[in-house]
Design brief:
Helix content is 29%, strand content 16%. By secondary structure, it is α/β, with parallel strands linked by helices. The termini are close together. The relative contact order is 0.16.
Length: 340
Amino acid sequence: MNALDLFCGCGGLSLGFEKAGVDVVMGIDSWQDAINTFKFNHKNTKGLCRDLATLNPQEIEKELDGKTVDIIIGGPPCQGFSIAGKRVIDDDRNKLYKNFVKFVAYYRPKAFVLENVPNILSIGNGIVKDAIIKDFSDLGYSVQHKVLIASDYGTPQNRRRAIFVGLQKGKFEFPEKTVEKYTTALEALSDLPKNSVADGDKYPTEPLSEYQKMIRSGSQKLYNHQVTEHNAKTVEIISKVPDGGNYKDLPEELQNTRRVHIAWTRLNSQKPSFTIDTGHRHHFHYKFNRIPTVRESARIQSFPDDFIFLGTKTSQYKQVGNAVPPMLAKAIAVKLLNYL
């Protein structure tokens, strides 16, 4: 089965599908940094840096070298939906999503997988969700949707994503949980040191959990583990927050030093992580007085250690934070292949 990944980012969705046995023939995204990382890690896949708002589906046909497109996957940004009264109105901000629909209409894949933020289902009392279902139903697809939680599929993170799956034949049923016991932040990160490791250096310790053994499989060296140096004041405040705590654990005079409700939150070593973001510096390691490194963030997202992020550190954090956890993607792909 061949897949085309639209809005591919650095390639978390693609990686999960590849691990399920799907051949991802191309990834397309408008952000060059993400495409650089995508191409570096998906050696047999073409990565194309193009704006999907204006890219015509026919334009990439010659790049596919005659391969069929059996599945289209991707996460078009849907925060652009404009709503008036009880309907979605057409305006420029809908172009990205509409082009995803156009690609499905042109290539007529056997299936598509569209992922997005959970509140896509509730915007405008569900009119965006209804519009998505109608657009693909009009093309002849049976469309199912569900919010999945990444920790149910082995990812050490309670990340929630809305997933739409469309089939030309049959009605998709979402995968059941694949784990009995959740992977904790401690099990994900405890082998990674407090201080920076130069890219390509050896691991300082052996794996300390089953998850670490799996995530390090095929990787001999450590990459993307450069720590952020915080100022003394920040370090002092973090040090007052216990494992799993947040700003409420601080003395009252420090509680309002950052005016966001997620401020000064530490990972809980005994639970999966909360949803990590693109590097806003409000979330801290359960033990060390610093934010997680890019590698630690990638672990929380279930990227294997041999998946290396390119670009500036700020860019790497953004790439990791925007990605779909590969273990979640793999669970969806494995289930989808049963239908195809």
